[in-house]
Amino acid sequence: MSTAEPSDKIALTGGSRRDRMRRMGDQVFSGLALGSGVLILVALSGVALFLLIQGWPALTADPSQIPGGDGFVNYVAPLAFGTILSSAIAVLVGIPMAIAVSLFIVFYAPKRIAQTLGAFVDLLAAIPSIVYGLWGVAVLGPAMVGLQGWLEGHLGFLPFFKGPVTTTGRTMFTAGLVLGVMILPIVSAVTREVFSQTPRKLIEGALALGATRWEMIRMTVLPFGRSAIVGASMLGLGRALGETMAVALILSISGDVTFNLISAGNPSTIAANIALKFPESSGLAVDVLIASGLALFAITLVVNMAARSVIARAERGAR
Amino acid sequence: MSTAQPPVPVLPGTTGSELTAGKLPQRAVPAVYGVAALAAVGLALAGMNRALAIVLAAAVAGVFLVGWAWLVEGRRRAIDRLVTISVTSAFFAALAPLVSLVETVAVKGSARFDAEFFTSSMRNVVGEGGGAYHAILGTLIITGLATLMSVPIGVLTAIYLVEYGRGRLKTAITFFVDLMTGIPSIVAGLFAFAVFAIFFGPGIRMGIMGAVALSILMIPIVVRSTEEMLKIVPNSLREASYALGVSKWRTIVKVVLPTALAGMITGIVVAIARVIGETAPLLVTVGAITSVNGDPFNGRMSNLPVFSYDSYRSPGVPPEPYLQRAWAAALALIIIVLALNLVARLVYRRYGTHLR
């Protein structure tokens, strides 16, 4: 805060009892506040440290003892593939939708109800992931069977839609779609904020030159918000990488490494694999799962760091 | 003085012709969509899939409008209409899952959303009957403990960032709080497990472990929302207090915090709503049991999200009663989450500081 604050260093009156009390109160309080801040730094490094300690046996164990018998890297690689594949679908679906939703709320919806509409989009983020999972299995999966059959019939020459199509719809395609819906509110929250900060003079200048609303958006809003869109997308990607329960419930898992999005044989993801295996594991298997969690933590940390620095730069540019 | 003109953006395809081009009739859009809505109802009544009928009718109407505009109004206006229609459709498509999800959970969950569900546990229950009393109690205890841990740490950190912090430490804490919001929930659960497993051995499962895991997820949300609220407290209030000779910490406690209180409560309630439905971290730390356990420091504890997951994932024979209980638990969760969000909004609207 840029307020003139009473400084501790200037003792106005020597040392009456009240002044000593007063300074002690200040010190205790600022110490508590500082301590909490530092505790957060400690907690975050603690997450990495404790996962490393508990996962270490898995990293150093004899490869034959790791489930699958091929060492830790070969255990994690197919899971990492599934994680990236499902997140890629989520990003492809969720981000264009999120940008369109933000544009609608900021530039198309009536100003009076825009805030309420934004609150509805935010509600998507409030729904627990377990409920998304149940919905994906019970409603979206069966509803997708027809579409996936059509894709197999008409686009079956692409490796993504080779089939054979499932009868339950519990495929990578469905899981990716649900993840896309789940990351939409996060991406939309950031892009909405930045879109609404587009300088008025640019918008009005474009309109005054005769631009249609879309031309105005293309020439002012999107260039202005470009790095925010990139940052928000990475934020959404980080979220999709770590999403657990929806994938664990929806995906029918065989462990195959395949780009085939609509068959019953799908790779698992790191997070879903932990949730599915952890309750029944013991001994080294637990360590392996924790080590895979550490890998997930590292991946999401890198993605989030990149996202935050891009967004921070965008926000500095916006001011 | 320079005579160079700034470059004038040239709009693609701007000729004079747009100026004289016609316009669609004013009621064209509502009329076309009115017809499309009737067609969708007709198709749905004729036995077509409801969602498919709506999508089909909306798409045909959109293509028709854009084509019409292209002929009458020219290319640029047609593209503008195309974007307007796409963006609007995208918004409604994004809300469709929300509607479908709430509807599904309400329908499927209401089968077992009865008194017995809220008053009995699953102890010695096989098949029909039973309830989620033990799970609801566990959820309340675990979330309550998480709140007790997160709120003081989160609020004090926000106070540090806004009132005291400067320099690199402040930048570092802000950055790490941002990173913490991105920790996958399952990783938070594994962290709590790893900490407790070091001291108590790998078989340990306790309610408090779940609370620690939830705190990791909750603290950054509390910090961010409290920080925002403290920032909008006007500096004139602080300065008035200093001018009266009030010390800094008493200014914060007596002036700044009360001014920001409603907003802070809103943020905390939203944070609770965010973590109360978390499944993954509780799955790996708290486990699940069928009977009531009210002691978070002793043994496994059931909770609503994991109860729902377990009932759905591994139902008994016959599966129906288990699936019905899973949906009822999901319905209870959704109601809790939506109610918390509503309460947060109302508190802020009623008591919030509107100083911006």
Quick gist of this model?
Chain A is mostly helical and 319 residues long.
Describe, in plain words, how this protein is organized in 3D.
The complex is a heterodimer of chains A (319) and B (356). Chain A has one domain (61-318): MetI-like (MetI-like fold), CATH 1.10.3720. In chain A, 74% of the residues lie in helices and 0% in strands. Chain A has helices at residues 17-60, 72-108, 111-126, 129-155, 172-195, 200-208, 213-224, 226-242, 245-250, 270-277, 284-318. In chain A, helix 2 (72-108) crosses helix 8 (226-242). The model of chain A has no long low-confidence stretch (mean pLDDT 87). Chain B contains 14 helices and no strands. The longest helix of chain B is centred in the first third of the chain and has 35 residues, at 75-109. In chain B, 46% of the residues are buried. At the A-B interface, helix 1, helix 2, helix 3, helix 4 and helix 7 of A face helix 4, helix 6, helix 7, helix 8 and helix 9 of B.
Strand fraction of chain B: under 5%
Largest interface: A-B, 106 and 102 residues
- Give the class of chain A from helix and strand content and strand pairing: mainly alpha
Q: Report the end-to-end length of chain A measured between terminal Cα atoms.
A: 18 Å
Question: Given this structure, which CATH class of the largest domain in chain B is correct?
Answer: Mainly Alpha
β content of chain A, as a range?
under 5%
Find the count of extended strands of chain A (DSSP E, 2+ residues).
0
Query: Structurally, how many domains make up the residues of chain B?
Result: 2
Mean pLDDT rating of chain A: 87
Write the layout of secondary structure elements.
The complex is a heterodimer of chains A (319) and B (356).
Chain A (H helix, E strand, L loop, with lengths): L16 H44 L11 H37 L2 H16 L2 H27 L16 H24 L4 H9 L4 H12 L1 H17 L2 H6 L19 H8 L6 H35 L1
Helix pairs in contact in A: 1-11, 2-3, 2-5, 2-8, 3-5, 4-5, 5-8, 6-7, 8-11, 10-11
Chain B lengths: L16 H4 L7 H18 L4 H24 L1 H35 L5 H5 L13 H32 L2 H15 L3 H16 L6 H25 L3 H9 L4 H29 L3 H6 L18 H10 L6 H32 L5
